[in-house]
């Protein structure tokens, strides 16, 4: 090791060695510590920080209350209030059908016939039996008249008169039985002709010419003329707002959107086991001749206020029209996803008052200005934080 490396200096001209001030051994540990700190700092700078998780983007828009009145609208069909099957009261082979599907019939008009041969023979047989019983009764009556006259003169015994009276009673019973049987056979012969008991329209055909049918088997279905019903199936969320006697507006698209007034006549007390909807029947007021059975309709039910009057007044319920893609179901109940201020999702229960072709009208769950998820409702979960984006093609969500 040289003198310079040891921190010593040789004075020129003297040969003496002197120690330099800036090379003290005490400073070497300090320099080593500083180097370690620098290495640690460099190693720390070399590590990459983990980026925050990306938020899921969702299409959400602020809810805007509808300006029109709150109504509940549902699809419906036009039906006859009364519709009954037409059937023969006796069995046999159909030999003639006089009406077809869609034909109008009058009350008492013949619509079909059975082969009457067997029934005609039966009627003839019972008529002959009735004639024989009537002759037997006439003879018994004459015998009774003679015996009563002879009994008054004491020409015959009392027992003989009683036998004559018994014979007359038996003959009378046989005549009555034959008379009833003959009447039944005559009716059965008459039943081989099927007659429309009401005026109406044939809406179905269940049997054809040459077919053997049993008694009571439907041959036609007759929709009675007169009152017309509007039939709709409503969900349980709408059921609470409907009452018997409530007014409704019926719009028929087939007649260019022509509207008719109707009254709720009947609300089913139990839900359909398959669709879980309740059937509501309304009577159409003042239908015109162009209203045809089977037409589809759109029924709008006016909300009922707390006072019980129909109409849109007296209610503070706000309605919001949303795309159908915004509707979610919490179990069996409709709901929507709402984005809160912190970006977290909340599931809100709503009431659906109208189902449109591509939209739904909801109420009782959201407020104006709240951001409702329009798309991707089945890919998110409650409490999840999301990033709100506008729809790429707003025209896709136009009502």
Automatic annotation (TrEMBL):
InterPro entries: Beta-barrel_RND_2 (IPR058792), MdtA-like_BSH (IPR058625), MdtA-like_C (IPR058627), RND_pump_MFP (IPR006143)
CusB-like beta-barrel domain: residues covered: 230-303
GO CC annotation, single: efflux pump complex
Similarity comment: family membership: Belongs to the membrane fusion protein (MFP) (TC 8.A.1) family.
One protein family per Pfam: BSH_RND
Stretches assigned to coiled coil: none
Top-level taxonomy: Bacteria, Pseudomonadati, Pseudomonadota, Betaproteobacteria, Burkholderiales
Protein name: HlyD family secretion protein
Gene3D superfamilies: 2.40.30.170, 2.40.420.20, 2.40.50.100
Compartment(s) of residence: Cell envelope
Major place of residence: other
GO MF: efflux transmembrane transporter activity
Domain Multidrug resistance protein MdtA-like barrel-sandwich hybrid: 89-220
NCBIfam families: RND_mfp
Keywords noted in UniProt: Transport
Domain Multidrug resistance protein MdtA-like C-terminal permuted SH3: 319-377
């Amino acid at each position: 090791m040289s003198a310079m490396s040891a921190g010593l200096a040789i004075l020129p001209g003297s040969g003496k060695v002197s120690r330099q001030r800036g090379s003290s051994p005490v400073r070497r540990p300090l320099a080593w510590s500083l180097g370690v700190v620098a290495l640690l700092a460099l190693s720390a700078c070399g590590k990459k920080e983990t980026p925050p998780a990306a938020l899921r983007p969702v299409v959400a828009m602020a809810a805007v209350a509808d300006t029109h009145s709150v109504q509940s609208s549902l699809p419906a069909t036009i039906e006859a209030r009364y519709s009954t099957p037409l059937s023969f009261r006796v069995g046999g082979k159909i030999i003639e059908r006089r009406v077809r599907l869609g034909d109008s019939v009058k009350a008492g008009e013949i619509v079909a016939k059975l082969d009457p041969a067997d029934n005609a023979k039966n009627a003839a047989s019972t008529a002959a039996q009735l004639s024989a019983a009537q002759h037997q009764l006439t003879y018994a009556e004459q015998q009774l008249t003679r015996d009563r006259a002879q009994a008054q003169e004491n020409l015959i015994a009392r027992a003989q008169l009683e036998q004559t009276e018994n014979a007359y009673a038996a003959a009378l019973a046989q005549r009555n039985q034959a008379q009833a049987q003959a009447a039944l056979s005559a009716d059965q012969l008459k039943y081989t002709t099927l007659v429309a008991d009401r005026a109406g329209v044939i809406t179905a055909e269940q049997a054809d010419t040459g077919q053997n049918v049993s008694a009571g088997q439907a041959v036609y279905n007759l929709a009675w003329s007169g009152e017309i019903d509007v039939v709709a199936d409503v969900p349980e969320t709408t059921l609470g707002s409907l009452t018997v006697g409530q007014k409704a507006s019926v719009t028929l698209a087939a007649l260019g959107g022509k509207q008719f007034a109707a009254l709720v006549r009947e609300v089913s007390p139990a839900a359909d086991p398959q669709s879980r909807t309740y059937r509501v029947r309304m009577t159409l007021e003042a239908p015109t001749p162009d209203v045809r059975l089977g037409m589809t309709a759109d029924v709008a039910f006016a909300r009922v206020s707390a006072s019980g009057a129909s109409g849109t007044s007296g209610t503070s319920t706000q309605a919001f029209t949303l795309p159908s893609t915004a509707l979610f179901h919490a179990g069996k109940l409709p709901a929507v996803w709402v984005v809160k201020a912190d970006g977290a999702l909340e599931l809100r229960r709503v009431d659906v008052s109208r189902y449109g072709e591509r939209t739904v009208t909801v109420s009782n769950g959201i407020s104006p200005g709240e951001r409702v998820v329009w798309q991707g409702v089945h890919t998110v979960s409650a409490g999840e934080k999301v990033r709100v984006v506008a729809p790429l093609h707003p025209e896709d969500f136009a009502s």
